[in-house]
Specification:
It contains two helices and twelve strands; from the N terminus they run ααββββββββββββ. With about 240 residues, the chain is mainly β. It has one domain. The strands form two sheets. The protein has a six-stranded mixed beta sheet with strand order 5-12-1-2-3-6, with no helix packed on it. Strands 4-11-10-9-8-7 form a six-stranded mixed beta sheet, with no helix packed on it. A hairpin with a 4-residue loop joins strand 9 and strand 10.
Length: about 240
């Protein structure tokens, strides 16, 4: 009886290495990983990260209102900070009358996830453009950058207005938002980045307007990263969490 038990134990033990080999993880080569969706980036490869958001509204007489909000992070960055540059251009055409279009619905747009791009028009001769681009480049060192514009403190709002409409740029606990309301009921546009998503939403109620919402994500990867650089990752990126990203 004991002999049969020991024989079973020996057979089981002999089979364990074979079973272990069956479930052994297979290491993928870099060339194989490069073909997969999503890709990957080793720690320390990112040496510069930037976000540039621009929203503009041009009315029928050529007057433009808008803003550019930008942030660039490098290893020397202490705290992530957005800077805002206002856009205010005078026009030379004829003024447009009050917008009379009507757009209904759309309440669900405030609860979307990911990238949402919407254009709703109830007027004539309008143009609207929403675009998101991701630029990835390589370099041996972080590029020299100089922040331009007014610093946008957390929880604050910057405002501007002219004949084309009124503009507000705000930083809240959920991210950064650029909002433009066209004058004379011409419509409105909003561009919002935060909570893991991006919203570009334009509603046109009048005529002859040109609206642009552009967001660019710029990443610079270290070229020929060495083992010693693996500890040089961008810790300031963690600070984006406090801004809602």
């Amino acid at each position: 009886m004991k002999t049969a038990i020991w024989l079973a134990v020996v057979c089981l033990a002999a089979s364990l290495p074979t079973q272990a080999q069956t479930f052994k993880p297979i290491e993928l080569k870099d060339q194989e990983l490069a073909t997969l969706r999503g890709r990957y980036v080793m720690p320390g490869r990112i040496i510069s990260f930037g976000i540039v958001m621009t929203s503009t509204w041009q009315n029928a007489n050529g007057e433009v209102i808008g803003a550019t909000s930008s942030m660039h992070i490098q290893q020397s960055t202490i705290t992530p900070q957005f800077y805002v540059s206002m856009i205010d251009e005078k026009g030379n055409g004829s003024a447009r009358s009050q917008g009379t279009g009507t757009v209904t619905g759309g309440s669900g747009l405030n609860s979307t996830e990911g990238v949402t791009q919407v254009v709703r028009a109830a007027g004539d001769n309008n143009s609207a453009y929403n675009n998101v681009e991701i630029n990835v480049t390589k370099a041996s060192q972080a590029p020299a950058t100089q922040q331009q514009g007014q610093a946008l403190a957390a929880g604050s709002t910057l405002v501007s207005a002219n004949g084309a409409g009124s503009l507000s740029v705000s930083s809240t606990g959920t991210g950064v938002q650029l909002n433009i309301v066209g004058k004379n009921n011409q419509g409105s546009t909003v561009q919002r980045l935060g909570e893991g998503g991006l919203m570009q939403n334009t509603t046109l109620l009048g005529g002859g307007n040109q609206v642009r919402n552009l967001t660019s994500l710029n990443v610079v990867l270290r070229d020929n990263a060495t083992a010693g650089s693996l500890n040089g990752n961008l810790d300031p990126l963690k600070g984006l969490r406090t801004l809602g990203f």
